[in-house]
Each structure stands twice: as C-alpha cells, then as structure tokens.
Amino acid sequence: MLYCSTWISINTIERSTLIPPLKRITKNTAMLTHPAGKAEKLFYVERTAIDYEDVSSIPEEYLHLILPYAGIYFERDEQCDILSQHKQVGPFSFWVQEVFARESFVLCPYTPRHIWALHFMYDTSLQVELYEDKSFALEERECNLFNLESDLHKVPMESGKRLLSCHINILPDTLKELAKLYPGLSRLANLESYGVSGPLNKYPYHINPVCGFLLQRALSCRHIGLPAEHLLYRCCLDLFLNFAQQDLQLPIEVNNVIHLDVLGQLFKLLVEHPYQSFTNAQLASMYDLPIDEIRAGFLRHYSISLNGFIRMTKMIMVFELLTEKSTPLAAIANAAGYSNWETLNRAFKRYYGCELDELRRAM
Question: Disulfide check for 344: which of 11, 279, 294, 338 has CB 3.0–4.6 Å away?
Fold first, then answer.
C-alpha cells in the first residue's frame, strides 16, 4: 500500500502545522468588511478561468504537500493561509483545499457557475451560512453531495481553526450523461435541486473505509500526465458510485450491521493482500459465515459489493505493478489471478479506460 505523504490515511489523518513566510494575496482574492467588523474573504470552490501559480512561488514549507499532478493556488495574508490544489479529469473537477485562520474572519465560498459537489470534510466541524435563514453543519469525517448555485455563502472561521476538505465538482447535466454509462449513478443524477444551495442527500454520510481508501489513492498518487488522469478519473467515479449506494441504503447505523468485527478483518485482508485470489465461498469458510450474510454485510457497511471491492483492489495493484517496467505483463496477470495478460487487458480497459501497454508507456 502506498504511504499517503499528503494528508489522508485509511484510519488516521496526520497533519503538519506550517507557518510559511508572507505571500501576496492573489488577484482572485477579495477582502470585504463584515458589518460585525470581521473581514470576509472570497474562497473559490470552483473556477472557470484556470490561472495556476508556478510551483516555484510556493513556500518551501509547503512543497511536501504538493500533489505532482495538480494545479496550485496559494494565498497568505494576516487573516489566513489558503492552499488549493486542483485537477480536471474528464467531467470531474477534483479539489483539495486547506484554510488555516490566523485571525477570526468570514470565509465566503463561491462558485462562478452552478455545480454539484461531492464534499468530504476532515479535521474540524463548521457551520455554513447558506442564506440568511438557512445554515448547514459540516461535520468532521462526513460527506455530502451539495447543489451549489452561483451565490456567496459564509463560513465563520475562528482564530486557530483549520479547514481541510476534498471535493469533486461536476455539472448536473454531465452527471445525467454519465449515469447512462454507469446506472449506479442514476439515483443521484435524478435528484432535484430547486435552485437553492444546500445538500441534496437527506442524511449526511460518514467517510467509510472504502471512501478513505480511494481518497488515499488520489492523495498519494505520484503520477503525472496520462497515468494520473486515468487513476484520478476512476477514483472520482468510484467515490460517486459509493456515495450513490450509501444514498440508496439511506442512513446506516453501524450497530445494525452484524459481524462488524469480521467485516473489518475481511476488509483489511483484501486491502493488504490483493495478490491473493479468494472465492466468496473461501472467504465465507475462512470467517465461518454463510456466503449470503458476508455479501450482504459487506455491501451494507462499505456501500460496494464484495466482488466489486475485490476487483477494485486487484485493478489498483495492477496499475502500480505497471510502474515496474521489467515485470512482464504475463507475470502481472498471474499475480492478479488472470489466466493470461490478454484477459487482464480487457478487464483493465473496462476499469481504467486504457490498455496495459498504453499506460505503461506513459509512465
């Protein structure tokens, strides 16, 4: 498993407190004055005009946090530090953003166009003032699908507060088109937004271990160019599919999932040993559970089928083995449990949208 040198791991989040040297406010930043006396700072959660900063302009203390494949926006003033990293992959606009408040102020999230945003909250909990008469609590380690109109919203930030979040933006009509290829997204694509900003899901959902695993993949990715695009596209797609399954199941109480300890052991086994091939019957026998119970419990707790997660871990393993260019494709196929590399190639193309040789040449 790759070590997440950025922020997120499956079970824990490790943070570094950084105080970089003073840096100018970029031309995309606006400071206003709040009636109560607190400054208001414009905070772009989506952009239509791309104007990334050169990595050489980023303070040295931040360089180890930079994602190799991402475009960067960095701001620093007396109120706060803001580090935004962005990558457009097909229909998905992938963002990782961090805000550290030196003083109390009001952060004003803004998108110049109507979007839906699958949002993952880390590190802290905040209250978002969507409108004068409508607010929403962003809780730590929760995920929501937001409808965001092109309006200014307000997030009070206290001195010393740190916001860390990851979100994937998509245009609502584009999600409808994507649902034609991936029917699992149909439920989300057909949600109504009614022209106001706010969560589209009735209940917030916890960042489950599968979402944590996928986010770790995205944030520990050291690839650039074509390999990064294929990897991130699949991570974004799987995060949307997982959220769609959570929404289909409605709120899940952990205490209502039977054999939770066994499911945790099974999840760990599959993540740590993707090169081993197990049938459902073998897994059921190993954990002394009926096949139907282990399948149903896995789906309910992780919002992905058991076989779907096995395929995910094997495809991720294959992706990384391709970086070892001396390893024959036949050996990679054997490690993934395929009879030959041609069969693996077809499965890989269905999953990542490219062939084995194509990806290896681009690495």
Answer: 338
- Residue 244 has, within 13 A of its CA and on its CB side, a CA count of 19
What would you report as the CA-atom Rg of the chain, rounded to the nearest whole angstrom? 21
Beta strands in 123-179 (DSSP E): 126-131, 134-138, 142-148, 155-157, 162-170
Strand partners, 110: 44
CA of 16: how far to CAs of 20, 55, 95, 130, 230, in Å? 12, 19, 19, 30, 29
Give start and end residues of each alpha helix (H) in the chain. 172-181, 186-189, 209-219, 225-249, 260-272, 280-286, 291-302, 306-321, 329-335, 341-352, 356-362
pLDDT tens readout for residues 152-209: 899 999 999 989 999 999 999 999 999 999 999 999 999 998 899 999 998 888 899 9
Tokens of 189: 């694509």
* 66: pLDDT strictly greater than 90: yes
| Residue at 223: amino acid letter | H
